[in-house]
Design goal:
single chain, about 70% helix
Amino acid sequence: MLIPEDEAVELKAWIVKKLVDISDADSDVLADYVLALVRAETAEPELRLSAIANLEDFLQGSTYRNPEGLLKCD
């Protein structure tokens, strides 16, 4: 997913706010990881599956909702 750098800053801030309530991990560091996942040059269906698989341990059961919301945020 192509995300321009200026939009990535705003997206990261949004991700950090979401992660604070659903993960015990450092939200800022995890947000960087999420950004790296969604910036992969992969088709959206594969991107969603990859995000779910890679974030499952961090998000403790919230994984199936969060990537969906992330991929559809405006």
